Amino acid sequence: MKKKKLKIDACFSPYLYPVYKDDESIVVIIDVLRATSAICAAFENGAEKIIPVATVAEAHSYKQKGFLVGAERDGLPVDGFDFGNSPFHYMGEHVKGKTIVLTTTNGTQAIGAAKDAFKIVIGSFLNIDALCEFLLNENRSILLLCSGWKNKFNLEDALFAGAVTEEILNRTDNYEFGDACLALKYLYQMAKKNPNKFLSYSSHKERLAELNLKEDVRYCLTPNQTKVIPIYKDGALVKM
Question: By the 8 A CB rule, do 37 and 125 touch?
Answer without folding.
Answer: yes
